[in-house]
UniProtKB/TrEMBL annotation:
Catalyzed chemical reaction(s): N(6)-[(R)-lipoyl]-L-lysyl-[protein] + pyruvate + H(+) = N(6)-[(R)-S(8)-acetyldihydrolipoyl]-L-lysyl-[protein] + CO2
An annotated Gene Ontology molecular function: pyruvate dehydrogenase (acetyl-transferring) activity
Superkingdom of origin: Eukaryota
Protein name stated in the entry: Pyruvate dehydrogenase E1 component subunit beta
Enzyme Commission number(s): 1.2.4.1
Main location as per UniProt: mitochondrion
Cofactors (names): thiamine diphosphate
Length: 359
């Protein structure tokens, strides 16, 4: 009789089968937020927290931003905190750098980082070098943010990944978030940092919902710059990626698990400074390394990771040469079938993992 009572309390009948009521009960849904809304939250909270913070760029105010990241902020904060600029990247990037030198904390939005080339003199020669050249007397707390890397059907002049370009330069911090939590926590940290930060978002992630923690809801939620995250633990091979490629790695890991291959997936989060310690620890455990990025192969992020692994203690733990999965070494084609073959796909990651494991 006691056994029957315990089954009943567990929601099961005398045969140990879930009752109809228990069977149809839904699990508690996790809170979700899109990548775009996470960025909007971060901007809103930091503008509220610090009166020196303001956003400027093309169409960020009345139009709510080209990708609607600043949606609602102009109506809430007005013309002095959300500022529309002319179509002149060098001009408004220079205004942002000058404002940062004068004690403000500007957030400068590029409609795409491909257009940041128009302002690269301001980003590198003015922003990145001034703190050092002034012997620490003149900090430049500016955030350059906007979509980076390939999108869909926008061809070569809108599809380049600048993670390797900007992370080459001392004086800059370079962030490439993957999830909604990454986006909010790292953008808040970037705005509060006294160094110039290049914040590389991904256009194809803006509308993607991610599960978020209770901690995420706090206005004090930040993620430290320079610390990678192990998104999935594994034992057979280490996959290292940033931005949208992290999702591809997780999908590839699910497929490979069905074949008995256990992948560890590392979300870099920050490109500079590079958290090589987390990558080394993983390689020492799995003995295999595959890097994944959407950028070009030559002098890329994966190339730097491979070099650092070779130069450090993890090299002696490798059982096979590291493999890089990258974008094709060409300007991005317009045709969809060529575009798909120019950026890493899940199948490319699976092929590379099997290659490095000799299976």
């Amino acid at each position: 009789m006691e056994a029957l009572r315990s089954l009943f309390r567990a929601g099961k009948n005398a045969f140990g089968v879930l009752s109809r009521k228990e069977f149809h009960r839904s699990a508690v849904a996790a809170a979700q937020l899109t990548y775009r809304d996470a960025l909007t939250q971060a901007l809103d909270e930091e503008i509220e927290r610090d009166e020196t913070v303001f956003l400027l760029g093309e169409e960020v105010a009345q139009y709510d931003g080209a990708y609607k990241v600043s949606r609602g902020l102009w109506k809430k904060w007005g013309d002095k905190r959300i500022i529309d600029t002319p179509i002149s990247e060098m001009g408004f990037a220079g205004i942002a750098v000058g404002a940062a030198m004068a004690g403000l904390r500007p957030i400068c939005e590029f409609m795409t980082f491909n257009f940041s080339l128009q302002a690269i003199d301001q980003v590198i020669n003015s922003a990145a070098k001034t703190y050092y050249m002034s012997a620490g007397a003149v900090p430049v707390p500016v955030v350059f943010r906007g979509p980076n890397g390939s999108s869909a059907g926008v061809a070569a002049q809108h599809s380049q990944c600048f993670a390797a370009w900007y992370s080459h330069c001392p004086g800059l911090k370079v962030i490439s978030p993957w999830s909604a939590e990454d986006a909010k926590g790292l953008l808040k940290s970037a705005i509060r940092d006294d160094n110039p930060v290049v914040f590389l978002e991904n256009e194809l992630l803006y509308g993607v919902p991610f599960e978020v923690s209770e901690e995420f809801q706090s206005k004090d939620f930040v993620i430290p710059i320079g610390k990678a995250k192990v998104e999935k633990e594994g034992t057979n091979v280490t996959l290292v990626a940033h931005s949208r490629s992290v999702g591809h790695c997780l999908d590839a890991a699910v497929a490979l698990a069905k074949e008995g291959i256990d992948c560890e997936v590392i979300n870099m989060r920050t490109i500079r400074p590079l958290d090589i310690e987390t990558i080394e620890a993983s390689v020492m455990k799995t003995n295999h390394l595959v890097t994944v990025e959407g950028g070009w192969p030559q002098f890329g992020v994966g190339a730097e990771i491979c070099a650092r692994i070779m130069e450090g203690p993890a090299f002696n733990y490798l059982d096979a040469p590291a493999v890089r999965v990258t974008g094709a070494d060409i300007p991005m084609p317009y045709a969809k079938i060529l575009e798909d073959n120019s950026i890493p796909q899940i199948k490319d990651i699976i092929f590379s993992v099997k290659k490095v494991l000799h299976v």
